[in-house]
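Sorry to interrupt, but I need a hand with the structure work. Could you write out one complete protein record for me, on any chain you like? Just paste the record in under my message, thanks.

. . .
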Amino acid sequence: LNAVAWSFGAWAAHHWLAPLSQKLRGAARARTAFAAYAVLLLLWGWRPFLLQVDGGAIAAQLTPDHFVPLRALAGRVDVFSALHVAQQFFLYFPIGCLLAVWPLRLTGRLSHLWAGVWLAALVEGGHIFVEGRFLDVTNFSIACAGLGLGWLIVRRVGFRPYGAAL
């Protein structure tokens, strides 16, 4: 299955990448990259794509315990917990890097990161309505840390915004 995926990816890049990179320039390329990555994060965050229809189960997730940082990971001391934190961080790191050079807006306080923060809130908030997932403010906090550090590293390297992507 991996060989089929790699083969399809190589074929798609060979046929579609050059025309796409010529068509999308500047802010349009940044908008498209942000939108494509946002869709991937939504698909990843909302898997297994089963809608939670029980109102009681949805309401049970809106308790104060779900809004205490690190509460869900406190009882676990295993490799999965560490990998879960790293995974959440590195999923949002590229968005922070992208927004450092192509923010969606240039005006306003922290305007360069708000798009990523709202995306993280949307993905995490959607967990309430996905079967087998649960709302956890820790994931949102880790995502914001990944966004912020990606932005900070790219800016400290010396890159400045090219302009607003919107």
Summary: The mean pLDDT is 88.
